[in-house]
Automatic annotation (TrEMBL):
The keyword Iron applies. Keywords: Iron, Metal-binding. Coiled coil: none annotated. It comes from the Bacteria. This is Bacteriohemerythrin.
Amino acid sequence: MYEMKEEFKTGIEIVDNEHKMLFEIADKIYELLNNEFIIDKYDRIVNLIEELKGYAALHFRDEEAYMESINYKKMFTQKIDHDNFIKKLEEIDLNKIDENQHKYILDLLEFVNQWLVSHILEKDKLIAQG
């Protein structure tokens, strides 16, 4: 379901390659949501949160380094968005996931989906314009 389409490309190779991986993680979340054969999804949810957090941190570091290299004027607001993304993931109470696994998967998918659509289309695409 989740794949990086042409409209999400910034034209910056490293950024686009890393965004593609974020779409792949979103797809894993979507697949877990729809997998009726796995009853207890707790461990998989936690693993996906950790994978997303780790990969996002790597991506944000690379993206910020690129913005710095081109003296991108909106880098500070980008960094705030990046920090807020990681903070939101760190604030997830892993102890509560077990209470309603389906809700947590939905919330995580909605959060990632919103990020992919709003942040990439509205902010990251501007980076290529300098």
